[in-house]
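--- STAGE predict ---
source: upstream dedup step, 1 unique chain passed
mode: sequence only
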Amino acid sequence: MIDPKRATRDRGDATNAVLKEMGAALGVDARGFSFAEAIIEPPYDPETLCLLLEHSNSLRPNVDAYATNIDGFGHKLQAAIDFDSEDADERVAECVFLERVAARERGELDERAPLEPTEAEVRSRRDELRLLARVERARLRSFFDSCTFDHSFVDLRRMTRQDLEVTGNATWECLRDARGRLARFVYVPSFTVRLLALDQDPVEVDERVRVSPVSLHTVRCRRRLRRFVQTDGDKRTYFKSLGDPRVISRKTGRVFESVEALKREDLTDGPATELLHFAIHSSRSPYGVPRWIGTLLSVLGSRAMEEVNHAYFDNKSVPPLALLVSGGKIAPTSAPRIERFVEEELKGRDNFHKLLIIEAEPFAKGDGARTRVDIKPLTGAQQQDALFQGYDSRNIDKVGSSFRVPALLRGDSKDFNRSVADAQLIFAEDQVFAPERDSFDHVMNRRILADLGIRFWSFRSQTPVTRDPERLTVSIEKLVRVGVLTPEEGRQLAEDVFNTELRKLPDEWVKKPITLTLAGIQNSTDGAASS
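--- STAGE serialize ---
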């Protein structure tokens, strides 16, 4: 009886053996990560996976489709409360109520104190929050404009997505300023990073949790944290997890009580910086596993097919013509003359009708033997087109299916009409790209913006304009004209369609149905005329 666990392990070992053999062929050598027992080896060699991207004809289009459609359109800041809306006072009052309830649960508010705010308190609180939201928005914009050194934040996201999809892992080094606030993100190649085992002892860390749409509260919790190590030749650098309050040596990975204690141990040492680890979840490893690893043999098979076809040009074994002589032999000087004629005197329009004369002589004269010379074409035995095209096409489809990316987004535009193309784009957006964007946005809001203390805004990745702007413009215009939407709501829909931010109009008429506005204008005109 077959043991499923053993069979699965054998298949995993076979996959690793194939990767190891491929890595050796591509010039990948061992990086020597076995210097500490606490280091966990990844399920598959990350550097070989990176090289496969460079040598595969099917991986790059899928990875680029992910990077472009998930991370390539930037982001926008979404307000927790629109303080210019009609229900702004109600939402502010709800925030004050929730904050007071949370304060009472923590014992910071007297039990007899009222929970519902007065109208004056709401107005005062709204004006205060509006000012704070403006300051926070300016701070966030400045942060994302300067949070990377040599490229934009969008470029950082695209590089991160490529690492994530190729190796299953991606990492950012998070740097803080002198006040301890997040200031910079540095891209760290994922194939150079290894994970250490979870620390045995839990660590008390501060986490910010949201108690209302515009307020955060810091709570202390105990978590088991992980350290990381990066290698560059013989040099090793240690990192700690984002939010880890401990002082950890960047040279040895040891934990110290303070920076002073670390310096007493080694003056050239310093505290480790923080690392944010992204991963495609794997049930058997803390590392991520690329989603295409099940089609590894298809990737390697397509590469082997390309090599076979390329080798044909230098190693073909069937000549185009054969010279057959029967009942005799050609003169000794004819063979080199024929070769020279074919190689040098058949090219060009001037030699289009040039003749080749071949002389042959019988083996014996006067015996009635006849000498015959024939030239036979051998093009039927030659390879006329690339071999294994059906196999390669099926492999490309397998890899694309593992990413769930339609053929149109992989660059294959054959045999598509408008309706099929629209259906493919809608499927990819709803089922593939949007969930990945939401996952990234959650990390940004829960880990980065919370660490920055951002209360009034949330991070939201922008989407490609896969809808027909002309048709949507007509629909929005009709809905606004009949009063179903107010002009302000129509402008909000236009922002979402065109991925741009429109200026807020302070006038009151934009918040009312256009039919009422036009009716009011008509009534005022009639009144003026009658007077």
